[in-house]
Amino acid sequence: MARPNSTVVVIAGDDSARVVAGLDGLANVRAVPRPSGDDAEQRVRAAVAQSHAAYVVHDVDPLAEVGAAWTGFFDRTAPVGTLEVAVEATLRSLRTEAAALPDYYVVLDPDALPETRRHWWFGVLAGVSPNRVVPAAADVATVRDTIGALRSGRWWPDPPDEWLHGLGRVVPDRAVLSG
Questions:
Q1: Does residue 34 carry a pLDDT above 90?
Q2: Which of 51, 74, 111, 140 suits a disulfide with 22, CB 3.0-4.6 Å?
Q3: Residue 70's closest CA among 127, 131, 148, 147?
C-alpha cells in the first residue's frame, strides 16, 4: 500500500476517543473514530488511505501490543516471551501492510502515566525517531494546537526489525526521556 496522502497522527492515552471525536470537523482534519471489531486496525488503515485531508487522526496504535509488552517486561508483570511474541506479530502486521506506523504520536497527559509507560513513549519511541512523539494535555484545544505545530523529523527506521527486536535491551532508566 502506498504512503497515505495525509499526515497520520495517533492520539494515545486514556481520553483518546474523546479527543479524536472533538477534532472531527476541524478544517483539514479527518478524525476517524475507533471502529469496533477485530479488524479495527484494517478499517482505520482503509479510512487513512482514502483521505485527502491534511491530517488524519485516530487512536488505533499499531505498536500498542509492543508497548504494553515492553512495559510488562520491565515491570515484571508479563509472562516471559510476551515481548518477543508482540514484536513478531507487529512486524508481521507491518510487513503485510495490515498496519502502518503513523507520522506522529500525540501522547495525552504524559505526566499522569506510570513511569515505565512514560519511558516507552518518551524514551524508547522518541529515541527511535525524535519529533515523532509529542506530549499534550488531554483537551481538544491543546491537541489541535499541538497538531498545528508538529515539527518534521526523521522517519521511523525502515525496516523496523532491528529496533523492534532490540527493545528488550532498552532499559527504562537508561532510555533518554524527551518532551
A1: no
A2: 140
A3: 127
> With contact defined as beta carbons under 8 Å apart, do 126 and 179 qualify?
yes
- Provide the 8-state DSSP code for 131: T
* Residue closest to 168 by CA, chosen among 61, 66, 37: 66
| DSSP-derived secondary structure for 72-111 | HHHHT-S-TTHHHHHHHHHHHHHHTTSS---SEEEEE-GG
In the chain, the domains with their CATH numbers are 7-174 (3.40.50)
Mean pLDDT of the chain: 91
Rg (CA), the chain: 15
On the question of pLDDT at 104 being above 60, the answer is yes
Position of cell 532490540? 166
**DSSP code for 35:** P
How do strand 55-58 and strand 133-136 relate by DSSP bridges? unpaired
User: Which residues 6+ apart lie within 8 Å of 132 measured at CB?
Assistant: 103, 104, 105, 125, 126, 153, 155, 156
Q: Which of 106, 104, 108, 105 is nearest to 138 (CA)?
A: 108
- Record the pTM: 0.92
How far is C-alpha 136 from the geometric centre of its chain's CA atoms? Answer: 14
